[in-house]
């Protein structure tokens, strides 16, 4: 058991390497039914749990690579995920398409996901859906649909323990990710408000923060407000008409170029395009001679 690992009865918080920061995440283990959620935390610890406690099922909060890395430790045990998030697990091409990856970044990401994240095509055995209530004796797990980050992102409420695993709504200072092809800023804000209103005493996050025991409004507000801060930066920059290339190269999301460049260029472009689409939809910007400008 690691120093930062925490057990709340049969619900275990398994911290990831480097505090669960990408390319790792934090996992959750349910003792008794032997379920591991998001097995990409710590390979050695996951092996120990497999060998000492047993793994009977793997559940995924969503399809992203940094949440499935060590799936291969568990052979052919049943795999469950939301039906909406299942397609990328079965085909690397679909996974790359769902990230909307194009050349020159596509080949970089294909290699990374196949080698670093050990991608192998997998078909879920069955599905978890919003509203499912799954009893395991003294543990009842309620499945909460929380789309936006991905279309089928799930959170998990452990009723008796008062624990809500938020998945990839990680409450970090960077803010939410909604840069995939099928991600949505509007659904992200809706999901954050739903999760915030869900009664719980303890919150687990998929990255970094880990275990939260004080549901401070300020923490939720700061996390959601990152979305609006990004929007304001883009609106200010568009006081003068700009091309999408000019906007992306201004690094309004990440602040400055970072390494590996292929990773951060992709993220900057993906999140910027989502905000441009959102601002166009709200009528706050317009297209002028092929460039974007504040309306």
General description of the model:
This protein is an alpha/beta fold. It has two domains: 6-215, Metallo-beta-lactamase, Chain A (4-Layer Sandwich), CATH 3.60.15; 229-294, Orthogonal Bundle (Arc Repressor Mutant, subunit A), CATH 1.10.10. 30% of the residues lie in helices and 18% in strands. The protein has helices spanning 43-52, 92-98, 105-115, 185-197, 217-237, 244-249, 261-281; strands spanning 6-8, 11-14, 27-30, 35-37, 57-59, 79-81, 126-127, 133-136, 139-145, 154-158, 163-165, 202-204, 211-212, 285-288, 291-294. The strands form three sheets. The protein has a seven-stranded mixed beta sheet, with no helix packed on it. A six-stranded mixed beta sheet has the order 8-9-10-11-12-13, with no helix packed on it. The protein is globular and about 65 Å long. The N and C termini lie far apart (56 Å).
Provide a compact summary of the structure.
The protein has 295 residues and is an alpha/beta fold.
Radius of gyration: 19 Å
Major sheet, described briefly? Answer: 7 strands, mixed
> Element order, helices and strands?
EEEEHEEHHEEEEEHEEHHHEE
Instruction: Kindly identify the CATH topology of the largest domain.
Output: Metallo-beta-lactamase, Chain A
Q: Can you tell me the overall shape?
A: globular
Indicate how many domains the architecture comprises: 2
For the record, the CATH architecture of the largest domain stands as 4-Layer Sandwich
Estimated helix fraction: 25-40%
How are the strands ordered across the major sheet?
1-2-3-4-5-6-7
In the predicted model, the low-confidence regions spanning at least 5 consecutive residues are none
């Amino acid at each position: 058991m690691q120093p930062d690992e925490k057990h709340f009865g049969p619900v275990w918080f398994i911290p990831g390497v480097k505090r669960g920061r990408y390319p790792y995440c934090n996992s959750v283990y349910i003792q008794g039914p032997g379920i591991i959620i998001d097995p990409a935390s710590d390979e050695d610890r996951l092996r120990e749990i497999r060998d000492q406690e047993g793994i009977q099922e793997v559940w995924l909060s969503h399809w992203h690579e940094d949440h499935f890395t060590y799936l291969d430790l568990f052979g052919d045990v049943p795999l469950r995920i939301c039906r909406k998030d299942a397609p990328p697990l079965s085909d690397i091409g679909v996974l790359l398409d769902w990230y909307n990856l194009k050349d020159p970044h596509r080949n970089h990401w294909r290699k990374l996901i196949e080698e670093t994240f050990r991608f192998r095509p997998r078909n879920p055995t069955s599905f978890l859906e919003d509203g499912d209530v799954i009893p395991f004796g003294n543990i009842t797990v309620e499945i909460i649909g929380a789309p936006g980050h991905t279309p089928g992102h799930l959170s998990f409420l452990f009723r008796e323990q008062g624990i809500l695993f938020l998945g990839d709504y990680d409450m970090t200072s960077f803010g939410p990710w909604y840069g995939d092809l099928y991600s949505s800023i509007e659904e992200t804000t809706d999901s954050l408000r739903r999760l915030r209103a869900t009664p719980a005493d303890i919150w687990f996050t998929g990255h970094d923060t880990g275990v939260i025991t004080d549901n401070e409004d300020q923490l939720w507000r700061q996390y959601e407000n990152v979305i609006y801060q990004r929007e304001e930066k883009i609106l200010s920059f568009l006081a003068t008409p700009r091309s999408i290339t000019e906007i992306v190269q201004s690094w309004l999301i990440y602040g400055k170029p970072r390494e590996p460049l292929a990773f951060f260029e992709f993220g900057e472009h993906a999140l910027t395009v989502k905000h441009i689409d959102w601002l166009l939809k709200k009528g706050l910007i317009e297209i002028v001679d092929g460039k974007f400008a504040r309306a």
